[in-house]
Design goal:
The chain folds into two domains: 15-81 and 306-424, DD-peptidase/beta-lactamase superfamily (Beta-lactamase, 3-Layer(aba) Sandwich); 86-296, no CATH class. Helix content is 28%, strand content 13%. It has ten helices and 13 strands. It starts with 14 loop residues before the first strand and ends in a 6-residue tail after the last helix. 53% of the residues are buried.
């Protein structure tokens, strides 16, 4: 959010319809019913193709209008959401694609190579993990760090507080833990979705950003240190360099005017709230990253922490789908990263998931199998149907007020939304 334009604090209208009113009625009905059924207090949705935005509307409110610690307000197409795991693809994977395009990282490069994280990373059986393994979630990692970075057992300096501050005081400890991380599966042999893969990618991107001079100390967000402790003395704080790189070369390059990590406090009231955290932060979360491990890392991570809205997500997805050169990527590189790698193991492409047969969740529903996609825990999803030449964005705060609430019903809402879009744009007969 550093240097971002001011959010529109008052929206004259909550909906923007850029196609015929009747044409998208079924899509509109699905979304309105989702709010009526309390799948989510509110949502914003978008459908676009190469010609531009076809549909963009918001429904509902920030809360259900009942007693709440956060102020209710109408959801608009400018409302900002906690992207959760969409951070993995919108921020981290895009950054890796850029470094790959420049020849500054290879998919077969070992993470323990000196130009990446170095020999220390190779301990505890990790010596053969390649960049591709991280992107495919088959590096052998467990799903999450154990103990979690937010736990008293892990011992981040701020954890003992009743309301832990969002500070970068645990960067060195988390980096050291990642270097010492153990595996639970053979490298490359088992697909297991893991936040640790993208925490690793964060450190890779941060190191490459500093090493190749894309980010200087002056680019770092205020309060984010330039150095952290390493085994052999101070090293660049790769978390801070990652944030600055994503801000400069992904967010700003794509024209995402109101997106980023660490939204300023004065904008929190205009961000869709997530859940009441009664075990770690002891507050109702709004404007602060909901993911506990990202929070413990000061609000920045490769797996979670990005905030955005439907307009900004459109800008980045439009670039990836139709004009990748705008963000320093070739069509060939996009093709490589969004094509499933090994369907006998999983539906995963590089960073992205796909709407192919191994994908049992099928949030993109009847959009084509040539669709690359991802979801976020807070209720976010994007689907990019290359066969139809369109993409959809659905942002919800289904996790308000309960972290695990409506996980099944938001799945149905995602499917119904994308099925309605697919019905509007049938594929040509074979």
């Amino acid at each position: 959010f550093e240097g971002m334009k001011a959010l529109q604090l008052v929206a004259l209208v909550a909906t923007v319809v850029l196609a015929g009113a009747d044409e998208f009625d079924q899509v509109r009905n699905v979304l309105a019913q989702g709010v009526l059924n309390e799948v989510t207090p509110g949502l914003a949705a978008l459908v676009a193709n190469e010609k531009g935005i076809l549909f963009m509307e918001a429904f509902g409110n920030f809360t259900y209008g009942k007693e709440s610690a956060v102020a209710d307000r109408p959801m608009t197409t400018d409302s900002t959401f906690d992207m959760a795991s969409l951070t993995k693809v919108l921020a981290s994977t895009t950054a890796v694609m850029q470094f790959y395009e420049r020849g500054q990282i290879g998919l077969d490069w070992k993470v323990m190579d000196e130009q990446l994280l170095g020999r220390k990373f190779g301990e505890n059986g990790k010596e053969d993990i390649a960049v591709e393994n991280l992107l495919l979630h088959n590096a052998g990692y467990p799903p999450d760090p154990v103990p979690s970075y937010s736990s008293s057992e892990f011992g981040c300096p701020a954890t003992h507080a009743e309301h832990p501050p969002l500070v970068p005081s645990c960067h060195s400890q988390i980096f050291s833990s990642l270097l010492n991380q153990t595996l639970i599966n053979p490298i490359g042999e088992v697909y297991l979705y893991s936040d640790l893969s993208f925490i690793t990618i964060m450190f890779l991107v941060g190191k490459l950003a500093e090493q190749h001079g894309y980010v200087s100390e002056g680019d770092l967000v205020p309060g984010c240190p330039a150095l952290m402790s390493g085994d052999d003395g101070p090293v660049p704080d790769y978390t801070c360099y990652y944030e600055a790189y994503v801000r400069k070369y992904v967010v700003e390059a794509a024209g995402m005017a109101t997106s980023g990590f660490l939204p300023p406090r004065e904008h929190w009231a205009w961000i869709a709230p997530t859940w009441f955290d009664d075990s770690y932060r002891h507050v109702h979360l709004q404007g602060q990253v909901s993911d506990e491990n990202a929070y413990a890392n000061g609000g920045i991570s490769g797996h979670a922490g990005l905030f955005s809205n439907v307009r900004d997500v459109h800008e980045l997805l439009y670039s990836l789908n139709f004009e990748p050169h705008r963000i320093g990527i070739s069509e060939k590189t996009v093709d490589l990263f969004v094509t499933p790698k090994n369907l006998t193991q999983s539906s995963r492409a590089l960073g992205w998931d796909t709407n192919t047969a191994p994908n049992e969740y099928k949030g993109c529903s009847s959009l084509s199998s040539d669709t690359f996609t991802h979801t976020g825990y807070t209720g976010t999803e994007v689907c990019n149907d290359r066969k139809r030449g369109l993409f959809t964005v659905l942002l919800t705060n289904r996790c308000y007020p309960d972290k695990t609430g409506q996980m099944d019903t938001v799945h149905t809402l995602r499917q119904d939304f994308n099925a309605a879009v697919a019905n509007l744009f049938p594929l040509p007969s074979q």
